[in-house]
Every structure is written in C-alpha cells, then in structure tokens.
Amino acid sequence: MKVKKILLLFIFLLVGSLTCLGKVQASTDTSLQHVKQKGTLVVGTSADYPPYEFTVKQNGQTKYVGLDIEIAKQFAKNLGVKLEIKNMNFDSLLVALETRKVDMVISGMNPTPERQKSVDFSKIYYRGKQYMLINQKDATRFKNIHSFRGQTIGAQTGSLQYQLVQQQMKGNHLKGLAKLNDLVIALQSGKVNAVAMEEATAKAFAENNTSLKVINPNFNVKASQTGSAIAFHKNSPSLVAAANRTIDQIKQKNLINQKYIPLAGKYMSNNSRKNTMWNYWTYFAKGIEYTLLITAVSVCFGFVLGTLFSLMRLSKIKIIHLLAVWYIEFVRGTPLMVQVMFVYFGIGTVIQAMPALIAGIIAVSLNSAAYVAEIIRSGIQSIPIGQAEAARSLGMSQHEAYRYVIIPQALKNIWPALGNEFITLIKESSIVSIIGVGDLMYEMQLVQSATYKGVLPIFIAMVLYFVMTFGLSNVLGYFERKMKHA
Question: What's the domain range around 166?
Fold first, then answer.
C-alpha cells in the first residue's frame, strides 16, 4: 500500500512538472523574436502544386511562384525579414518543421486534427474543393466516387486527398507517391485511373494538358478538413499570431482572388508557351554540376574512411575490430535514403546550420565507406600471406609491408570492384534530392513542374546519367589497363 502511494505521488509530481514546463515554454515563446533576430524567414514548401506553389524560369534562374509564395512574401515583408524558400517532398515538410530546418510550412496544407497534434496552424487562408484528374478518353466512364470501383486511384502521400481516397473509396486500389508530377505521369501512362487533388491544382494541370480532364467526384469532406493553412512549430503562438495578422490583411484587401491567383495563372500561361526542354538546359547543367560535386567529394572521403575501416576490421585488437564490424554491418543493413534523412533531420537538429548539400555529402560518404571497406578488406586478404612474411624478413615493419607490398598488389585486384562503387555513387547520389539538394534528379523534378511534361525530362536525365557513368567507366578502364601492364 505504501509503495502504491509513493508511486501515485511520483506520477502526480511528474505530471505536474510536465504541465509547468509546458506553461513555461508557452509563456517564454520566442518564435517571432527568433525569426526577426536572424533576419530570415525560412519557408518549407513542395513546389509541384500549381497554382499554390510551382517553379518558373526567369533570366536563367529558378523562381518559386504561386498563391502560397505570394502569401509567404507578404508575411516576410510584414516581419521585415528576408524570405528563404526550401523546396522538398511534401511528406518531409512536417519533419523539417519539427526539427526546425524551416520556420514555417506553406504548401496547400490542410490543418487536420492529426497534424494539429504535432504542429500549430494559422487561420485558413483559402478553401478549395477536392477533385479528380482523369484522362480525357475516360470522361464517359468516370463521373463520381462510385464509378471508380475497383480502379487504381493515385494521391500524394501525406495529403488530405490520400486520406479521403483511403477512407471513402475502400473498394479501390490506392497508389501514393510523394510528387504530383509522378502521379500525373502514372495517370497518362495508365498506371492509375485517376489522381485525387485539390480543385485549383487539378484545373491547372488540365488547362496545360489537353489529354487530361477534371471532375468533381463529390467527396464527403468535413469542414474541419477543408482549407489551407500555414504550419508552425508546436508552441509558437507569437509567430502564429503574426501570420494571422497577415492573413487578415490579405483577406481584407481580397488579394488572393484579385491578385495572387491571377498572377499565378499568368505565370502558368507564360510557362506553358516556353516549356520546351531547350529552355531548361541550365537546370540540367546545374543538376550535373551538383551530382558530380557530391560524387567527387564522396568518393574521396569514402575511400579514405573505407581504407581506415578495412584496416580496423583486420586489426587484432578486439575493440577496434568490433567497432569496424558494427559500423560496416549497420550501414550496409540500412537504406541510404534513411541515412540521408537521419543526417539531415536527426543530426541536423543538433547542428542547425548544416546545409542540405553538406548533409547529403556526409551521408553518401559514410554509406560508401562501408562498401569500400569490404572491397579493400577482400583485396588485402586475397594477397598470399607469404608476401607479408617476405617483406617482414627483409626488415620491413608491418606498416611498411602494407604500404609498399600488400596495398599496391591489393589495389590491382580491387580496382574493378572499386570502380563499380564509384560509378554506383553517381546514381545513388540522386537520393539526396529528397532533402532539397539541387542534383540532377531534383532539377529534373523542377523541369517537370515547370513544363507539365513528365516523361521527356526523365528521358533526358536518364541519358545524362548514362553519359556520366559511361565516361567514368572508360576513365577507370584506362587506369585498370595501365595497372595490368605496370
């Protein structure tokens, strides 16, 4: 009985402490002050959602435009700070917000009760219906939710539309993807029969592609689920209040209907007239530059770290050997995508100033090091033990034996496998696009968003990746032949 009383008292004190802590945090909110002090409002968005947010090319540069971007501009102006846009996958936005990589998220996001548990939301700034995008040839087949029974429906993961299809179209197959552009490609190629999206966005795609059509499937949408709002980090009342003042100002002047939406439509119309691939060659060039940069740096660091871990694994000192084994097995046993997200969102919470490019390079380098370590270890173990014994009999130390006898011979054996790892890095570096690094894959997605063309940018990116890997393969082959004659 005494133990129970002590336990109840402990629980009471713990709950009281947490309550007090929450009140202290709320009363000492510095979210608005923090943004003003650093002089920059960092905004997270997924720029593939016209007319809310999308990209256009102006003077050879990528520009983020749309209804949401105009609201973000006005908010930053009212705060007297600069605006910085971070473009990433929609389902990564709230993670970026919670880990403070961004100050706010504006991306046509619905303030659902589930999301409100994790983040704070501003007032609703725009309401739109939930529509379906279908192929024009299917216009007579699909009229409402019931006519889609047994069909495959696409929706953006993490979106309200994904939830609506999941809950109200249970007789259908649901296909979720992170990018709307990919869903539209799937629709045009027959992989899905329809794509659920917000009204204005569906109409934007249909107006720029005559093979597509918009219908209203009559989703049963609750009032609490409709509308778009700005998301902020939990317990940021001062920043939310400032955003609400901006939204009130915008609504009072009716800027959304009179200025922002017409302006977005103008950008979309101009973009449609200039959407040839040649106009976007600078995007692909920038993507190649970042891809090669990430690959080159990761190859250098990966090789150095890989060599170190291979020697550690061959060490007779147990703790050093085990550390190397644990690292190599752990890295090889987890996906690179997860590692990239952990470095950026996980370690990035400790090192707030870490840029996405640096996080991507670190993750790719650490991943490559594990594979390089195993390649080098196997190469060293392929050298007959007599070589090391002969070197030691000549008076060489173990270090000298490895440096002058073992490693040079092992390098000839492992060069083909090492070359394959370097070539693989060019392709695997594309994963860093999920955290907003402007590599070739990221730039390809920007071109898709800007041109409303899905397959052609993919084909161009595929050719460019082939050119890079084939070129590197020939360079590595040249050195391999030189080694054979050495």
Answer: 130-225
Mean pLDDT is highest, among 207-221, 314-328, 434-448, for: 314-328
Specify the amino acid at residue 217: P
9-36 as b/e, with b when 16 or more CB fall inside 10 Å? Answer: eeeeeeeeeeeeeeeeeeeebebbeebb
* Per-residue model confidence as pLDDT tens digits over 326-372: 999 999 999 999 999 999 988 866 776 788 899 999 999 999 999 99
Distance CA 469, CA 466 (A): 5
Q: What angle do CA 283, 288, 293 make, to 5 degrees?
A: 130
Give me the CATH number covering residue 403.
1.10.3720.10
Residue 177 in domain:
yes
Distance CA 361, CA 428 (A): 11
Q: Residue 233's beta-bridge partner residues?
A: 119
Over residues 35-91, the pLDDT tens digits come to 999 999 999 999 888 888 988 877 777 889 989 999 999 999 999 999 999 998 888
- State how far the Cα of 88 lies from the Cα of 437, in Å rounded to an integer: 9
Residue 316 in any domain: the answer is yes
Same domain, 309 and 409: yes
Helices (H), 173-236: 180-188, 199-207
Do 363 and 442 reside in the same domain of the chain? yes
Q: What is the dihedral of CA 346, 352, 357, 362, to 10 degrees?
A: -50
